[in-house]
Write a structure and sequence with these properties.
64 residues, mainly alpha, 0% strand
């Protein structure tokens, strides 16, 4: 039981370290990722609406 708990804790710590320190980059032909805030929303909206002739994808992730 203790080994399973320690293994799960170790896996969680490894995941947390990877999530915190892993490089965040996108392919060369893709614009950088954007965080949507009250200040950046008009810019994101303009970019989204400006690409109406192509495929658009808006992904919202929440930690809760």
């Amino acid at each position: 039981m203790k080994k399973t708990l320690l293994a799960a804790l170790g896996a969680a710590l490894l995941f947390a370290a990877y999530y915190t320190y892993a490089p965040r980059h996108v392919p060369g032909n893709q614009p950088p990722l954007a965080s949507i805030t009250n200040q950046s929303f008009p810019e994101v909206q303009e970019a989204f609406n400006g690409a109406a002739d192509g495929v658009r994808l808006l992904v919202l992730l929440s930690p809760t």
